[in-house]
Amino acid sequence: MERGFKLLSSLVLSSTLLTTVSIAAGGDGTLDKVMKDRGLSEADVVRAAKTYNPTGVHDKYLIFSSGGQSGQVLVYGVPSMRILKYIAVFTPEPWQGYGFDEESKKVLDQGKIRGKDMTWGDTHHPSLSETDAKVDGKWLIINDKANPRIAVIDLSDFETKQIVVNPVFKSEHGGSFFTQDSEWIIEAAQYAAPFDNNYHPIEDYKESYRGGVTMWKFDPKIGRIQEKDSYTIELPPYMQDLSDAGKKVSHGWGFTNSFNSEMYTGGIEVGMPPNEAGMSRNDTDYLHVYNWKKLAEVAKDPKNVKVINGHRVVPMDIAVKNDALFLIPEPKSPHGVDVDPTGEYIVVCGKLDTHASVYSFSKIQALIKNKDYAGTDPYGIPILDMKKALHGQVELGLGPLHNQYSPVDGEIYTSLYVDSQVVKWNFKTLKVLDRVNVHYNIGHLAGMESNTADPQGEYIIALNKLSIDRFNNVGPLHPQNHQLIDIHGNKMDLLVDMPIPLGEPHDAVGIRADKLNPKVRYEMGTNSRTEQISEGKTLAGQERIERKGNDVKVYATLVRSHINPEHITVNKGDNVTIYMTNLERAEDETHGFTVDNYNVHASVEPGKVATVKFKADLEGVFPYYCTEFCSALHLEMMGYLMVKDPNKKYESAQKLKMATMSKEQLKAEYDKTVAVNKATDDVIQSVVKFLKDNHYEKHDVVKNLVTDALDQYGKIPEQKKLSDAAIKEGDFEKAVLFENMIWQYMVKTADVGIRAKDLLVKFVATKQSPEAAKGEVAFNEGGCSGCHVIGKVSSGPDLTGVLGRHENGEKWVADFIKSPKDKFEDPYVKAMIDYFNLRMPNQNMKDPEIKSIIEYLKWIDSNANLF
Amino acid sequence: MERGFKLLSSLVLSSTLLTTVSIAAGGDGTLDKVMKDRGLSEADVVRAAKTYNPTGVHDKYLIFSSGGQSGQVLVYGVPSMRILKYIAVFTPEPWQGYGFDEESKKVLDQGKIRGKDMTWGDTHHPSLSETDAKVDGKWLIINDKANPRIAVIDLSDFETKQIVVNPVFKSEHGGSFFTQDSEWIIEAAQYAAPFDNNYHPIEDYKESYRGGVTMWKFDPKIGRIQEKDSYTIELPPYMQDLSDAGKKVSHGWGFTNSFNSEMYTGGIEVGMPPNEAGMSRNDTDYLHVYNWKKLAEVAKDPKNVKVINGHRVVPMDIAVKNDALFLIPEPKSPHGVDVDPTGEYIVVCGKLDTHASVYSFSKIQALIKNKDYAGTDPYGIPILDMKKALHGQVELGLGPLHNQYSPVDGEIYTSLYVDSQVVKWNFKTLKVLDRVNVHYNIGHLAGMESNTADPQGEYIIALNKLSIDRFNNVGPLHPQNHQLIDIHGNKMDLLVDMPIPLGEPHDAVGIRADKLNPKVRYEMGTNSRTEQISEGKTLAGQERIERKGNDVKVYATLVRSHINPEHITVNKGDNVTIYMTNLERAEDETHGFTVDNYNVHASVEPGKVATVKFKADLEGVFPYYCTEFCSALHLEMMGYLMVKDPNKKYESAQKLKMATMSKEQLKAEYDKTVAVNKATDDVIQSVVKFLKDNHYEKHDVVKNLVTDALDQYGKIPEQKKLSDAAIKEGDFEKAVLFENMIWQYMVKTADVGIRAKDLLVKFVATKQSPEAAKGEVAFNEGGCSGCHVIGKVSSGPDLTGVLGRHENGEKWVADFIKSPKDKFEDPYVKAMIDYFNLRMPNQNMKDPEIKSIIEYLKWIDSNANLF
């Protein structure tokens, strides 16, 4: 198998852009054929073109979508509708080590309720942080309806950093919504329940059950909710639903709707009509309008608050006394309340009404100022007259739910659940402009930075609740269907369906991708959840195992392709902590880690420290390994945890005699390995020379790769020292292994170095003429590249310089392509046939193709130094 | 808000196919503009067309991919590369209720190791069940490398039904592979470890650590592994890697390669070179070749097996004595071993060698028959001479790993990890045919039914381990990149990149979608994990709460949109079991269920019974609700769990006096509600008439919807009875609520009924002429539909019959479109302007467009009965 290495070396220099092929299309009927084969219309092709991203092309927008009952957040690109990541938020997720490493367990532990682990969430409304009512790309928050909590995700690394539990709600829905400078977060309750943790009979619903809105103080600089500066506004048990924060002219105010102003409490089991009947009896429910800014001041006075479960609650009567809480009737069982980009209009849609209602903030303020009330509710809250507060209403269709704004003045998009439509209308003129069918039963819809002061337009996404027949059947539990709608033109155009493979997303928000700038690595030694340097930070050479009584702490490092240490022996019952530092700097060079059967897993990105902890309660031998396919030698990136029972005696079983190598054989293997390394190093040096000669440092992306390759290469001298030391001790066996390690580092250097070289070639090659480009296509399409690889001897000769190899070279080559067999007796061709044991076939090339290929060969020769 | 209802009624009949718009493309420059805007080449457009699925179009192939460290399996479509589902397998997943309901907990409990919960898995190799070496679409299995286990997934509902733990391995990799009639499953170990559960020092590696292959007996009829009929072949601690089962001529044999025939055990922490150096020292490792069929017979004799951890193990010497175990040298550190469609060729690629090695099964058999051995290994296993067993070798490039076959004789596709390429070659002629660059560092590659006796060709998917720059940056942890490659032509063509949002898929298998036929609902009352009728099956009317001491059992039903019961009161400390039966029959009508703060969740598809169980250890009031947006009233689908402390005394807090309605007011509300219901019913009856008149029963998809609508409608008489009974008792309040419930059922009937009607219209409408179709486009694109909705009065008059409304109607309409203001004084137009308070604008239509619109209007009139 020595040949193996030689070919490896010979290949190092020759891997190039040889297969960068573009196929000819359009003009030659290829597209027509594909359309016919796949039954596509011309409109389909336009839609395909509007949503297709060629390899490596990024999306213009990113969508952050709730993952519904998966408890996670998903991120996808628009217009390609490709899901880029499920971010672990409320549910343990092993790929990310979330809930399986110690750092993330501390985040999840913040989400315990009354001491109980909550291992999932029903995520509903994601919200992006804002500065001056525009999204700023810094923080994302999302709420959990089932276990009233809010999580904070850092958009610099897409990791969950904080979870806070609502101390008084038992359920919530109308969170989470940032205010316009992210100084507060609105979280409204859903199902009313007692604020305390005691039993109260359902008969006491009106007296003891409460709704509310919690205003969480948020520090946008550090991205953390400040729990003790936060407070809750007590509200009647009307079952609050969605909320939105006022902005610009309405900044300081919050809006929260409700769906059970009937205060019906059901009783189907005792012959009462179900909740769905009783809760939708009235024609109107209440929009809650509150001045949270004023109430934040009010709450500072301890006389104005009740402290429940350690949390400040502003009672309704205090809020009313301070002119900070009002109700406005709104159509039956509303869903969305959405403040327009100016802050003046508040659009509410009632799912059991066919209208959208547009309220005017200035009209509301005038009513408040003049104390022009239509009455009070049973709890003494002033009610404003609906008609006087309305700018107007417009009939949209069946089951209108949510609204998204566009940059066009007055333009708004509303989802219709029952009609399964998106309707475009104007909330100023109150005219319907367009509608499009979606599939099926749309809930929320998501625009791009839509409900901010700076909506981007371009696309609307329908978050459909049913997909039914849209996709291949994958069992009784169907995917959801997010449909992308193009809103550039007068008519909306439904572009494409996107199945959601996990969870039922409830709501989603879009952001221009260029507003995000996430990191690709951590500062070496970082605990990513606290963003501090970890106590477990371990650099190369600092690896160690420390013991204190039953506590064993392992300070380990991970790097392509070994874990240090490779053996950990502990006693049964020991508490084992393994800190792992990923020493890599290269982008995407993540290592994973698990100890078999001990149910721990960590994802350790470059620079990160992740920690796993377990009680070694099972005796035995347990492999541990890197769970990412991080390099060619990833399978070998492993070690053994050995758990001894301190009360047992063990005897060695070493009986098996293996044949051993003689000193001479070992010396010969050593010499061979050193020679192989020398040859490989020559190859690497030639790559390095190529890179330097062509100024790799001018191209950032190449420079990063070279840095990584040199990182690997830089580890060689240390191994060489160890090898030399072994030789001094006469231990050839050990020396062979260290030389082998040197070869491994060389392979890793070459792996990355080749990628760097390939990229550099693309940067520095002279531009192809259109004719040469056509030639490259013909060369590849025509099958030439099956045997001829540029810059390399393959199944046929290397064609670099072929035009100069023969007299009147261009004609010679053209003739040969046109009719190979005419030259089979030519001495040069004959020699080649003998050498390769192959005759060049006639590929039936047309004259213009041959002409183009000659141009391509000329281009190759002009860049011969690059191949 | 009465108007709300009236419009609802008026809309019921008019929701139609009005927005089924197709935009004109291609000829009019739209495509060119999109290409320019998005920087697409003609080749890009072809690739877009090759991968785009218009709304509702299904994929030809489904891919089942390992979810890597997520512990799940993902399913996606080809060529659209849309992920359809993450199937929960080894990791709890709340959306599916997996690990959150009792039924699935029992499946996960099967996967406990030595009594410990394993809450994740490192899934590697999925395998589809086969009949006669062809995939049959019945079962899918997948292995867990970290905690050696195999899971069985039922492709009739895409749920995990069984998990078995390997009783002797501590780690595995070369599973799971079905034999050709799915009668056995091959599972090979990875990191060698003692078969027993005791500590053995690493120095005893060669004596006490073992590799092996477990042969699991599988019953393809019921889809379950039969643990006690299974056995393990003991192997040397060479660290077995991938496996494949022989087929056809090689049926009965198994092939498993290895990567540490050096038996190196590392020691980096004590100054030894790391495993990656020591384990790749030799130029060759061993391919294990074994006759599992013969060994299954051998294992039946208790004298031939050792029983370890209750499991039968065939020792190496017994296997050798029975001529059933052999070794063949294979190139350094191989990854893939792949048996060709005929079973004669076995292709092995060594990641540290540049070659693929093609072994011949008949040559291997000849060597075995003639006992032509090159020697034995230290454990006495006969070694066959590599050269004599080889059909040949071919140089492919750097880091060849895995192979997939195509229907073309001899054609094979191999992944090159270091070169980041897929190479096409011929394993018979040993010629390289083509190569394509992928991005980056490909591991496995997946063809369609590829390594079976009937490979389908068409596509190859590259499962790349790094994506680096391919996608928008989503933080240090990158998605993986699956790239779809078209292999229809001579040249491979890279079509599209697909990010993997969760986990690092290791391997994937493809199947023709038409081989799958999953169900969309369960037989009413089914426990989906056992496929038996559940003890908790509850039909409408059977709902109840049963108590026995501290055990409370709730038999509940779920149906749009209520949970029965709505109140559950228990004592603190009670053990609560809630059985839920989803009474729905409609496709995709799933209900979810959770009790707030009790960390349970269930996904209850139509017909299914799911059970949640918890100890009511927290006092208080806890809402429970349906977590799926199942219908317009989904928020109201809720109830309360109330947990009382039996040691506490509670006093009622009822003090609040609410205004109550007088008997007269209640009577008036009752009358109004009954009238509304009557009017709504008239509307429904007219829809029903339309459906019947147009023979809805002829169209299956419409028929299913009508069945569902009538299901809802059928619930009304019972409510009417309750309403009438309340009236008899003089309880108008209660009667109003039951009438309201009737209205809710009517809304649900209408919801589905409208969808049925819309669909039916598409089936029965006369076909549009091309001219009329153009007219519809022009009508929509030109903005007419902004005000005019066919079949309905909207912001402008209904245009149904407009051509007959005026003398010389066609000309009248054409003139009006061309210059509206010329007719503003026309009495009819004047009346319309007054009525709608709008003047028709000039949309600058061209003459041919106007002509087409007239044709469209004619088509409308010919189908006027449908709108």
UniProtKB/TrEMBL annotation, chains A, B:
Limits of the Cytochrome oxidase subunit II copper A binding domain: 542-656
Signal peptide stretch: 1-24
Subcellular compartments: Periplasm
Record keywords, A-Z: Copper, Heme, Iron, Metal-binding, Oxidoreductase, Periplasm, Signal
Protein name: Nitrous-oxide reductase NosZ
PANTHER family: CYTOCHROME C OXIDASE SUBUNIT II (PTHR42838), NITROUS-OXIDE REDUCTASE (PTHR42838:SF2)
GO cellular component, one term: periplasmic space
Domain Cytochrome c per the UniProt entry, residue ranges: 770-861
Principal location: periplasm
E.C. number: 1.7.2.4
Pfam families: Cupredoxin_1, Cytochrom_C, nos_propeller
Domain of life, per lineage: Bacteria
GO molecular function: copper ion binding; cytochrome-c oxidase activity; heme binding; nitrous-oxide reductase activity
